[in-house]
Amino acid sequence: xxxxxxxxxxxxxxxxxxxxxxxxxxxxxxxxxxxxxxxxxxxxxxxxxxxxxxxxxxxxxxxxxxxxxxxxxxxxxxxxxxxxxxxxxxxxxxxxxxxxxxxxxxxxxxxxxxxxxxxxxxxxxxxxxxxxxxxxxxxxxxxxxxxxxxxxxxxxxxxxxxxxxxxxxxxxxxxxxxxxxxxxxxxxxxxxxxxxxxxxxxxxxxxxxxxxxxxxxxxxxxxxxxxxxxxxxxxxxxxxxxxxxxxxxxxxxxxxxxxxxxxxxxxxxxxxxxxxxxxxxxxxxxxxxxxxxxxxxxxxxxxxxxxxxxxxxxxxxxxxxxxxxxxxxxxxxxxxxxxxxxxxxxxxxxxxxxxxxxxxxxxxxxxxxxxxxxxxxxxxxxxxxxxxxxxxxxxxxxxxxxxxxxxxxxxxxxxxxxxxxxxxxxxxxxxxxxx
Amino acid sequence: xxxxxxxxxxxxxxxxxxxxxxxxxxxxxxxxxxxxxxxxxxxxxxxxxxxxxxxxxxxxxxxxxxxxxxxxxxxxxxxxxxxxxxxxxxxxxxxxxxxxxxxxxxxxxxxxxxxxxxxxxxxxxxxxxxxxxxxxxxxxxxxxxxxxxxxxxxxxxxxxxxxxxxxxxxxxxxxxxxxxxxxxxxxxxxxxxxxxxxxxxxxxxxxxxxxxxxxxxxxxxxxxxxxxxxxxxxxxxxxxxxxxxxxxxxxxxxxxxxxxxxxxxxxxxxxxxxxxxxxxxxxxxxxxxxxxxxxxxxxx
Lengths: 435, 300
What we know:
The structure holds two protein chains of two kinds. Chain A is mostly helical. Chain A contains 16 helices and four strands.
């Protein structure tokens, strides 16, 4: 055991003194964590507001909608007078989208009654094709603003009355509407007028606010609560760095695996492996020392990255003991990968190049670059074959997913099984190559 | 100390070693001399158990198997490549290779100091090997092989690519190790190294041992006669009384007794009233032995 430790310490010393290896093992994963953490909103966990330009051609009816859009935290609104100007801003990438409030726009929920289905829409949304990722969120925010208008309207009796009268008029004009359908809608308008006149829950002050609307019983607020699934005892929202550091740790483990695989080949080529094999130690000692050094380097890298994350960026670790277990299993898995990589080529260049060729696809399909949630179903299915996926899931489970040991067992078991299988393959190929 | 019997090794269809046998006496120095590709390194790797022979056996220190870890502790190897860690200092390299041989404590510190002295690197003990010249690295390479006081030291072309000063330092180091009783097996394609350092020499070519003996015996058996070569000031009018062969103004005389031949030649030239510009004696050496045995030069 002593000789294994001596050799492992020697390997760690070599790693620490090799600046290029240190970059891939420590600096690169840290940069990744910082980059993606900052991209996803840093320690606030919030997205930057989306710049959107509004063209209001409604003749005043859209003013309330514009104000509600302005009050949305997710949007940064400015207005222009001409649609062409708005289009130009989006085309040149200066705004993510434009909202066009067309003539005939009616604010509030009554716009949906008595509409001619063939009539063109009175509200249009144009999104930069390069920002399709934000399209859904943007549509949601605009819809939210529209429904807020509906809430206000239900809380204002005079607006309600005016709108029901307008709808009755529109229904009379809608010649293509079936008579039964017209009758049903007119009955609905009668019922709304009745509720409004009876000082019921719809009644309220003419200058009602959202809060008053809420008291009157009609409000969207509180209907849907956004719940943070990243549980934390402190009650504070999770930092984006909590999310990005687990994958950066796995990149660090990959860096260690690549560095040690290359060092193994270097030892073989330089002749130091011959010296070790002529020494009074078993081949198993040499392999064990490489494995131990790779594992220790992986654990050390993880510890350094996490320490930096905790001290400098406020990363919070859910369960340190489970994290330790996850790191041991993940490091063991990547040690197995290291042994296989060390036998895939006969030169450092071949192993280093081969490692990237093998590891990059595994990282990509395993969530090391593209988040698992953003993957199409077929790629998500393929990700099960990547050790990256299981390592990230295990580390995330201990850092912010707040999983129990039982819930983490599948990931941990797969990592350990992969470690055993890969270690076996590496040793078998090595024995065949150097009998 | 070392017995190799009928060693055979092939790489695919290429037979690298074809039935090599020899013995090395305890405390002696033995050279495997041959050109690149002769099979010297492959033989050496089989001797230390790093390569499994296809046929034949190796026995060390009596009847011990080199694959046995206890036997390997008797062996030190100085590979042809620079088998040191460039990122470690000279002292760290020596300490590492001594520690994996089981040395520790005061003994370890003593042997590290000894190794630094052997390599002439006492003043550079804390410098990383990557900062050393080629010759310094070669010296450290040798010291790492001998740091644990092996009884049998195998050196695989330890002077490849070094400057004359470092080469001489390496020779002196090896001679010091021999004086301490270390048995030496030395592979080289430099016949002057084999002549200087070794008692017995095996001449190898194409995976076979062509001849084994002491340097003198090999020269006597295969080196032919010495050649006395004389450059005359002018071409002689007659060659009737001259010994040897004349080409232009160069006279060559083959002889087993160069001194006697020079005395006789001097008398003959004086009588013929011929003066000498240059006189050279070529004694037979291992190069001539190799040429005689293979029909080509060692460095072809």
